[in-house]
Every structure is written in structure tokens, then in C-alpha cells.
Design brief:
This protein is mainly α. It has one domain (13-58). Helix content is 45%, strand content 0%. The longest helix has 13 residues, at 20-32. It is elongated. InterPro entries: CheF1/F2.
Length: 62
């Protein structure tokens, strides 16, 4: 598992051959033991030209 650090948690159950509930229980135990750190990743988004135009119109800018 250490070789696959950063793997999506959604891939783990198939990777290790366990059901989702079991993996979640193991996650909780490992987080509580200080072995795992839960890290939330935010996806950055950027307005396209159309989105900027809509936002400008909504804010009364031209």
C-alpha cells in the first residue's frame, strides 16, 4: 500500500479485494491510530468567456 500512496480511496476496495464498508472501518481505525491522514482535494475551476460575461451581467458590469 505504501507504494501506492495518493491512490484514490474509491480504488482501494477493488485493489485489496474488500467491500467498501470494511475498507471504511479500516480507514477510520488507521486515521484514529495516526497512520493515515485524510486529505480533501479541491478541484480548481475557471470561468470560460461565457461564464465571465454572465457574471459581469449579473453584477451590473460591462
Amino acid at each position: 500500500m505504501a507504494l501506492y500512496s495518493g491512490v484514490s480511496p474509491f480504488q482501494i476496495p477493488d485493489f485489496v479485494g474488500l467491500d467498501v464498508e470494511t475498507v471504511e472501518e479500516i480507514y477510520d481505525e488507521l486515521i484514529e491510530a495516526g497512520v493515515l491522514q485524510e486529505k480533501r482535494v479541491r478541484r480548481d475551476v475557471q470561468l470560460k468567456a461565457r461564464g465571465r460575461n454572465i457574471a459581469s451581467e449579473a453584477m451590473g458590469e460591462e
